[in-house]
Design a protein that fits this description.
With about 230 residues, the protein is α+β, with helices and mostly antiparallel strands. The protein has 3 domains: about 55 residues, Arc Repressor Mutant, subunit A (Orthogonal Bundle), CATH 1.10.10.10; about 45 residues, no CATH class; about 100 residues, SH3 type barrels (Roll). The protein contains 7 helices and 7 strands. The strands form 2 sheets. Strands 6-5-4-3-7 form a 5-stranded antiparallel sheet. A hairpin with a 4-residue loop joins β5 and β6. The protein starts with a helix and ends in a 5-residue tail after the last helix.
């Protein structure tokens, strides 16, 4: 997380009127208590009215507004549309993050702009994921980020089932399905797996390193050679 994002989050947490300890803040932001102390000192030095002290907790009691965000009407439409898509087509953690992002945007918008996030001229009608697919998407998303190998059972379009060991490289939303692009160690080649055809998966503890010929860039280069615009 960038420091600017972390400082913003600390202000948002303290504006609620409830005393929060440095340990609570550190746990939520996944940083050290020492980092929280430094960040709060920096915020106080910049004029943020934070009350409290180390070992007790911190709070912002007086009304305090961050500078209004200068989003255009079209930018707000784009954000609203994207958030609605994620709410319908993301796993639980992504949906929760999208909702929290919406709350943060509303919190710093001027009052006369608030209703722009509620307008309904643009709508999303993406199919909603099943609970099982949401769980799989969440696991795969973390595996892609952590470069952890995944063992999965996959059912192809013809109904045949195979067990694969893969290196997850990226996830793609197509509007009607999610796919996982991976280097398949079982087949020694790149493969794309539809998440709704994955029957079970296990994220392994084993972490892989990018190797020449097996990276997402290598896969995209192959697609471009074959005439795909990626």
């Amino acid at each position: 997380m960038r420091r600017a994002d972390r400082l913003f989050d600390i202000v948002q947490m303290l504006r609620g009127g409830r005393l929060r300890t440095a340990q609570e803040i550190a746990d939520q932001l996944e940083v050290s208590v020492r980092t929280v102390y430094r960040d709060i000192d920096a915020l106080v030095a910049s004029g943020v009215p934070i009350e409290g002290e180390r070992g007790i907790g911190y709070v912002i009691r007086v009304p305090f507004l961050l500078p209004p965000l200068t989003f255009s009407a079209t930018e707000l439409q784009a954000l609203q549309l994207g958030i609605r898509f994620v709410l319908a087509w993301g796993d639980g953690e992504l949906a929760s993050a999208a909702q929290e992002a919406l709350v943060k945007i509303k919190a710093v918008l001027p009052n006369d702009r608030q209703d722009e996030l509620e307008r309904r001229e643009l709508r999303t009608y993406a199919m909603r994921l099943t609970d099982t697919e949401k769980d799989m998407l969440g696991l795969l998303r973390k595996a892609v980020r952590g470069r952890q190998k995944v063992r999965l059972s996959y059912e192809g379009s013809s109904g045949d089932k195979t067990d694969r060991l893969v290196r997850p490289l990226s996830l793609e939303a197509w509007g009607h399905a999610w796919t996982l692009t991976a280097w398949c160690e079982t087949r020694s080649d790149f493969r794309a797996f539809r998440i709704d055809r994955i029957r079970s998966l296990t994220v392994m503890d084993e972490v892989f390193r990018p190797e020449p010929g097996r990276t997402l860039d290598d896969y995209h280069a192959r697609l471009r050679r074959e005439g795909w615009n990626v």
